[in-house]
Amino acid sequence: MKERIGNCTRKTKETDISLTISLDGQGKNQIDTGIPFFDHMLDGFARHGLFDLEVHVAGDLQVDCHHTVEDTGIVLGQAIADALGDKAGIKRYGNFILPMDETLALCAVDLSGRPFFQYDAVFTAERLGGLDTEMIREFFYAVSYSAAMNLHLKILEGGNNHHMAEALFKAFGKAFDMASMEEPRIREVWSTKGSL
Questions:
Q1: In the Cβ-directed half-sphere of 54, how many Cα atoms lie within 13 Å?
Q2: Cα–Cα distance measured from residue 27 to residue 29, given in angstroms and rounded to the nearest whole number
Q3: Following DSSP, what letter does each residue of 91-109 receive, concatenated?
Q4: Number of other CB atoms surrounding residue 51 within 10 Å
Q5: Model confidence, pTM
Q6: Tens of pLDDT along the chain (196 residues)?
């Protein structure tokens, strides 16, 4: 497969974002969103999915974290779509159940070209560091729709809110890595339609 790198920038009155992702990396990253806990979550996604990821965000954090987190999701989804190209020769589907101490998180991905998002995670804390926990859903929703992927995330067993958030991001990294992997037995797009 050719080198799969996606780039995206987005500049609005609320955020200024540049992002690059390499799907065939080693988990190396440089992340600065202005929200250290969100940086930690994106690090977990990249490191455990083995994606090289550079993210630089200047957002209106004096308002709150909403625009920064949601717009980062939009940009990540667009960069993923850019890196995947026509999706020829990839596995397309991926899933992972990730344990993190008492927490168990499930993620399933279909790189179908049809956006759909299902989310089942209830947090008991309103914030983790500078990240509002309600924004975790908004981030993944933005990724799924911008990348045109079917994405299911579910906390099967909860507990510590930090563990729950981290397990979701890591499970997404592992499942997306599986879905985007090369399938050596095929060269075309894996669909009866002939395209995704």
A1: 9
A2: 6
A3: --EEEEEEEETTEEEEEEE
A4: 26
A5: 0.95
A6: 678 999 999 999 999 999 999 999 999 999 999 999 999 999 999 999 999 999 999 999 999 999 999 999 999 999 999 999 999 999 999 999 999 999 999 999 999 999 999 999 999 999 999 999 999 999 999 999 999 999 999 999 999 999 999 999 999 999 999 999 998 898 887 676 666 6
Cβ atoms of residues 47 and 173 within 8 Å: yes
User: Residue 16's beta-bridge partner residues?
Assistant: 11, 58
DSSP codes, 55-92: EEEEE-TTT-SHHHHHHHHHHHHHHHHHHHTT-TTB--
| Cβ–Cβ < 8 Å for 65, 35 | yes
Cα separation, 171 vs 186, in Å, equals 26
Q: Are 79 and 146 in contact (CB under 8 A)?
A: no
